User: What shape does this take?
Amino acid sequence: MPTRNNYLSTLKPDFKPKTYNLGKIPAYQYKGTLKEELKAGSLTAAKAIDVLEDMLTIREFEEMIVKLRTGAYESCKGYEYRGPTHVSIGQEATAVGCCAAMNYDDFITSTHRGHGDSLAKGCVAIRGMSEVELKARIPETKASKKKELMEEALEGHVYRAIAELFGKEDGYCKGRGGGMHIADFKAGHLGANAIVGGGVPIATGSAMSSRYFKTGKVTCCFAGDGAYANGVVLEALNWAAMGQFTDPTYTHNPYGLPIVYAVINNHYGFTGRIDGEVAGVSCVARRAAGFSDTNMHAEVVNGMDIMACMSAMRRAVEICRKGEGPVLLEFDTYRNYGHSLGDPRNEYRTKDEEAEWKSVDPIAQFEKQLLDCGCITPKKLADLKAKVADRNARMAAKAAWSKDPDPADVIKYMYTDTRVDTVPEAFATPKVVGEIPVIKRTEDGQLTYKDAIKEALIEEMLRDSRVVQWGEDIAEYGGAFKVTKGLTSAFGRDRVFNSPISEACICGTAVGASMTGLRPVVELMYMDFGLMASDQISNQAAKWHYMSGASIEVPLVYRASVGGGKGYGGQHSQTLESMFAHIPGLYVVYPATPADAKGMLKSAIRDNNPIMFVESQIMYNMKGVVPEGEHLVPLGKADIKREGSQVSIVTWGPMLFDALRAADMLAKEGVSAEVVDIRSLVPLDMETILASVRKTGRCVVTSHCVGIGSFTGEIASRIMAEAFDSLDAPVLRVGAKDGIAPQAYSLEDAFLPHDRDIVAAVKQLL
Ligand SMILES: Cc1ncc(C[n+]2csc(CCOP(=O)(O)OP(=O)(O)O)c2C)c(N)n1
Assistant: This one.
């Protein structure tokens, strides 16, 4: 483990002329055949037939969708499928080749065109399961023999995948996700993603978990060629290749991320051509050269040849398990249909091109090889095809007429109510590798807000080894505001480390890491930068618990600090919690006192929901009494910070202190104001707010958010809807001006709300 001293950089200027070698990327090197693989023992005839069965299962599933659209699918006539139709016919070898070359408990992430990946992963997982695992998967089974159990589980797999596609309660995600978000965490499938590139940082985070826990598990990240133009994907490649993971001369743990970036290059984005149109590289694998001196062991593979796919993936997995990942494999393949079935393809490609690719169809080619080397007879091949078609048809009919989710449950699964009350033994005694920073209280027990946060971080790191932190400059430097100072030397670089300036990846890797066992607490240096990560926060972290039908939890904390009030201008001063509160699925909390900061952060780290934890930079040096040791403040519980009887001032964040000063000022004029600090925007403690308003009859809601779209409006409207009879006057709001935070002191002062504005509003009510 490097100490702080030997971690100090000793860079010298060196401008000697040199040339950087970008290396070579092998392409289409595989020349083997099934016969040779069988002879070499890398594959058995039985496994080869399983591989064919899985490809046929995908083809049948996708052709079902095509036929459903025209009413030609016989087994569920009359059933009207509504939903996306991104079929992957033509690409089956990539899905099956990759999954079949992995262990059954390795991980994948997938895409909007992910039925194939999902089916392949499930089939491979089921075939790898023990009898006990199979019985757990299909608890109602009457089968006892392994083969029967497996066949039943495979049938159940097809059923649950179709049921999810059809939006049924029996689906993998209880109909909450659908085909574009299908996931089966029990089979290592961490989710398909309808945001192009959205799953790539998640996969990267999953590989971080494997590295941290030393499980040896590999993650295969499926994404299309189109995705490799997206910022977050390029961020993820940089992240995975970071020297602090891979460079043995520099790092304490030179174990590269065990991840295979599987680029499924079907040559089109939606319609945009990667070849000669929307990219400037001759092969997508060249992207790898931009991020790693080893070119990430990139390779271009014939994605129409299942043997080539499997061989490449086997080698990639081996590299990863040796700790030499990441690996990037580009699979050259083709989608026979358009982007979706609504796309006729004729605007951008020719029938001749399609015919050329159909002539190298992966299934037809592999069937020929199986027949040629006598692995299967024509009769057995016909039987296998009939079995697959029949299974799909029966499962489709069963799914089509199975139970729809109950409309009363529309928001069921939004949040989890679980948290870590007891840390499992394996994680309960984390290693401490250096001195733990001393946090000093004043004689009367006070701490700064910043130290209160730091104390919470230290206590939770000591309590649970799964709590891991990353963010920009948070290691030796301690973060831009020094909140994490000293934590790297205390807990080690595996638990507190610097990230690149990649907010989307900071937030997205946390999602994948939390899905696979870590409990990340990551820092957004300024809340404004959260907008760079809004997809990962809002579409990924916030949504996965619901979209998976509660089959996965995403326990993570985004610590976001707000810069307003320091004269930092428009891009470093925004108070954006109202925006994030508008995203269902995310908790949003904002403590205003040191005691609440400590107690709420500890609760947040133990909670199993994704949480936006907002901190204000102007409060970092504010002092208050903070209980030592185990001090937990529940999330979603408001706090009456001052009792009063004539008006309620409902607030959160730094406006609490304006509200308290306003209450003092009003008291001098004989007005009794109650100050309610909501502390959590989501979940919101309406009960406490309503009880206060029912008592006082008047209410002002105030925060640092700009007026338009502020969460103050949400509170005001709910008070009016739920306590109208108790109100003697309308609810008023006090916020920042509807403008952009200016730098000039005079302007920022005019921009932000103050105690005097609250007093004026109260007087208006009275
Ligand atoms: C961030 C984002 N932008 C745009 C889209 C719309 N869209 C869906 S699929 C797609 C093309 C994706 O191309 P690629 O990654 O190559 O995958 P393919 O569809 O070819 O399998 C686009 C633009 C989206 N879903 N997400």
Remarks:
- The two ends are 64 Å apart (CA to CA).
